[in-house]
Structures are given as structure tokens and as C-alpha cells.
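Notes from the 1:1 (GR / supervisor)

We went over the backlog. Supervisor wanted to see one worked example end to end before approving the batch request, so GR pasted a single chain during the call. The sequence is below; no edits were made to it. Supervisor asked that the structure be written out right there so they could see what the output format looks like.
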Amino acid sequence: MNKIVKNTQEAIKGIKSGMTLMLGGFGLCGIPENVIKALADSKINDLTCISNNAGVDDFGLGVLLRDKQIRKMIASYVGENKEFERQFLSGELDVELNPQGTLAERIRAGGAGIPAFYVPAGYGTEVAIGKEVREFNGKMHLMETALTADFAIIKAKYADAAGNVVYNNTANNFNNMMAMAGKITIVEVEEIVPVGELNPNHIHTPGIFIQRVFKGEVFEKRIEFATTK
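Structure output shown during the call:
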């Protein structure tokens, strides 16, 4: 089965206003920057975005925030985005913050078909408001529910036409688990290789979880901070 699509416009076909999207990446590492640009150009809005963070003011998800395309963020860390802060404090943006490990497990559970689980992180804090609490082995735990999305949009180094994926080092981050948790998963790659070229022992995400593969055009690969001396 050939899962390759020609461009970002074909890749995002079917994404509509009001949908829930998962977007891979950690900081600016491993983000699907070509798809994010296509979403910005599409003017789709009222989105719920699940991502570790919201990019920076002029890059990554920060572009969608700037254009008021995101209604709700489910995230872990948002400290590098002034527009995020402004929208949150003004009540324009709905925000659901998660401890980072909890966010990762909520996504993994969604892909594995596990509806909920218990974790100690967040007990006794604002994170616990409205959540079921149970004691296990003398320690209090919160019940957290799984996360899934209409579309999961991820970034990888290599993929083949069957959708088998290999990530580049730490760019694996949230991408691998998100691939399993989307009803439709789009992978933006730097290079498409022939089927059979990837070593089966080195494949990170099997093609069964991927519906669309496309080769990105330009990758800026920005970093959030540059230390010069």
C-alpha cells in the first residue's frame, strides 16, 4: 500500500475547524513545521491542540496561536511563548496543563486503548481539581484519562511508502506515541526511502499506525536558545 501524498495540502486534507490535533515535538525539536505552516495558510480555526509545548512566538505552534487558530491547548510546558501567556491571561485561550510524564502517558494510553490510569504526580496541587483520587500502597494517586485525536501530525527522518518510520535521535520524543493515538496519522519526513531499505530492527513506528507520508520541502530546525559564549 502506497501511503505517500504529494504535498502538505494533500497531507492535511480532511482537517477541519473544531477538530483535535496532536502535534509531535519537544521544544522546537522534531516538530512537523511544514504541516504547521500549511495549517496556518488554511485558516482552519477553533482547534484543540495536544502538544508538549506551544512553540515560540514566530515558529511552530506559535504561528497558529498568533493567528487565533487554536481554541484550547493541552500541553506540559509553555514558558517560551509571550502570545500564549497573553491569550491565557486574557481568557482568550483555554489551557489544560499536565505534568510532562502524565501527558506522555495519557497519549500512550490513548494509542493502546487504555481509557484511564492512576498517577501520583499532581496530587495536592491545582492539577488534582475535579479528578478522582485513590490510595495505592499508602500513596495518593489521581485518575487521568487517555488522549486521542482526530489527526496526529508527526515528524520523522525517514519513512517508506508503507509508512514505516525512523526518527532522528531525540526528535523521537512525543512523535512515536502520538502516531498510535490519532484516528489518522500524518508523518512529515526528511527523506522517503524504498520499501525494504529500512532495517526492521531499527523501525521506531510500524506502518500500520501511519496513513499518510509526505516529504517536507524546507526544514529550518530552529533552536529555542543559542549560547554564544
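Supervisor's comment: The helical segments are 8-11, 33-42, 61-66, 82-90, 100-112, 175-181.
Batch request approved.
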